[in-house]
């Protein structure tokens, strides 16, 4: 070994290369099996995540800086335009809000009449997307809140327009989340118009979800709004998910071919909201009586 | 040299527009191939494995997937490093194409075994962009190498 190191032009083998590579290959296969089949490595991933975290922060920094600079240098005209737009919006929404309070009061009254537990409002926190997973077929995102913010696995993530996804892995200060468009994600939904329950599956495209389990005679039309049904337990009920875009009924096939466009703009969001749902609302709960 | 690896890791997680996403070259693989070819005693399979694990964590893939693939191509590189050093540029670039294809094949194989579906473009596009960028990367890394040798 000493001799081969002294003479660099000698085509000397790197010592024990074959054995080393075999051990490492075996180690990575073992790791993959442990990770994929057993999910034992949550803590390992978290620890290593802390090592990689600075890299993500550094990568994210120019984008944050750009956002910040853009905010700082918006010109007066644009600001005034935005101000007037916001004023108009505020007027509109406060008008709507008045109706909402009335409706909420009415709803509470009706619920009292039904002797049911009233809906507790969901608690919400805004989080920022730090990175979009570089493997688009998995459609994962990294958000800047983690265990220290009481984020938990399976927590629902929404944006202003609808459901975005759910948390799959919580680190200390960041978490990974899966988007509803991920091909391995399925979400229990119901049609807002008639309460028809079904499952919305991701397709790997940001602007399409599949509804593979609807029979040909199901009452569903283009333009129907799908909302979370809350039956899966992970998502609180009533958040908009997608709007049905195409319904193709195939007479010889058992199921119709239905696709929908997610209400949330999954490929454009930068801020999302995490939802802490109140304990599941159960109108026939014995303990509440 | 470690800096170049860190930079390549960063380039792997920089958000790209949707359209460009599949065409992201395998920066880490290219950087590791270069160092394994030039300094096989410092950068060998062990470091490739560690970097691969970090890449897996950063990308959220199955832990060990990139480690396996990187380890494999770095092994091939170290095995033939003397040969590859004397290759003319065209021949070397063709070798890099083969190595990157091998790398993507291992990733593809692991994804297949794990039951994950991926569009074919995510496999062949990085191979092509990586090969096209290889001459540029060699020049950059040769600069880094010369400077680090000057410093001692």
Helix/strand layout:
The complex is a heterodimer of chains A (289) and B (152).
Chain A: H1 2-6, H2 17-38, H3 42-72, H4 76-113, E1 123-132, E2 140-143, E3 156-158, E4 163-170, E5 175-179, E6 186-191, E7 197-202, E8 209-211, E9 225-228, E10 240-248, E11 257-262, E12 271-276
Antiparallel strand pairs in A: 1-2, 1-12, 2-5, 3-4, 3-12, 4-5, 6-7, 6-9, 7-8, 8-11, 9-10, 10-11
Chain B: H1 2-13, H2 27-38, H3 45-59, H4 65-79, H5 81-86, H6 89-114, H7 121-151
Largest interface: A-B, 46 and 44 residues
Task: Give the biggest beta sheet of chain A.
Answer: 6 strands, antiparallel, barrel
Written as H for each helix and E for each strand, in order along the chain, the element string of chain B is: HHHHHHH
Shape-level CATH architecture of the largest domain in chain A: Beta Barrel
């Amino acid at each position: 070994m000493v001799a081969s190191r002294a003479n660099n032009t000698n085509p000397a083998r790197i010592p024990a290369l074959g054995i080393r590579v075999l051990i490492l290959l075996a180690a990575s296969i073992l790791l993959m099996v442990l990770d994929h089949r057993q999910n034992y490595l949550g803590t390992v991933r978290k620890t290593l995540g802390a090592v990689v975290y600075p890299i993500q922060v550094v990568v994210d920094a120019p984008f944050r800086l750009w956002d910040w600079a853009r905010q700082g240098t918006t010109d007066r005209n644009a600001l005034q335009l935005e101000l007037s737009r916001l004023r108009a919006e505020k007027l509109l929404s406060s008008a709507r809000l008045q109706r909402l309070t009335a409706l909420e009061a009415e709803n509470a009254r009706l619920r009292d009449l039904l002797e049911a537990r009233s809906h507790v409002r969901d608690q919400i926190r805004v989080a920022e997307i730090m990175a979009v997973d570089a493997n688009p077929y998995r459609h994962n995102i990294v958000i800047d809140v983690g265990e220290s913010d009481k984020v938990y696995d399976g927590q629902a993530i929404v944006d202003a327009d609808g459901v975005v996804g759910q948390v799959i892995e919580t680190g200390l200060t960041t978490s990974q989340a899966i988007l509803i468009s991920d091909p391995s994600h399925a979400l229990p939904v119901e049609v807002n118009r008639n309460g028809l329950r079904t499952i919305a599956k991701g397709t790997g495209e940001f602007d399409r979800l599949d509804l593979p389990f609807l029979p040909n005679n199901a009452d569903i039309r283009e333009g129907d709004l799908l909302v979370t049904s809350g039956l899966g337990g992970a998502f609180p009920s009533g958040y908009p998910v997608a709007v049905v875009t195409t319904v193709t009924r195939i007479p010889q096939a058992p199921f119709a071919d239905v696709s929908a466009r997610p209400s949330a703009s999954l490929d454009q969001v930068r801020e999302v909201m995490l939802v802490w749902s109140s304990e599941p609302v159960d109108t026939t709960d014995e303990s509440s009586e | 040299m470690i800096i170049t690896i860190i930079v390549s890791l960063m380039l792997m997680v920089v958000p790209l527009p949707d359209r460009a996403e599949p065409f992201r070259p395998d920066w880490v693989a290219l950087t590791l191939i270069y160092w394994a070819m030039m300094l096989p005693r410092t950068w060998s399979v062990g470091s490739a494995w560690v970097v691969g694990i970090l890449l897996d964590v950063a990308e959220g893939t199955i832990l060990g997937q990139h480690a396996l693939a990187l380890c494999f191509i770095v092994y091939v590189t170290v095995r033939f490093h003397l040969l590859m050093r004397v290759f003319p540029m065209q021949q070397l670039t063709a070798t890099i194409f083969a190595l990157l294809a091998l790398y993507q094949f291992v990733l593809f194989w692991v994804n297949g075994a794990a039951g994950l579906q991926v569009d074919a473009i995510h496999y062949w596009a990085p191979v092509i962009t990586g090969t096209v960028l290889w001459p540029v990367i060699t020049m950059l890394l040769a600069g880094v190498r010369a400077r680090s040798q000057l410093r001692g």
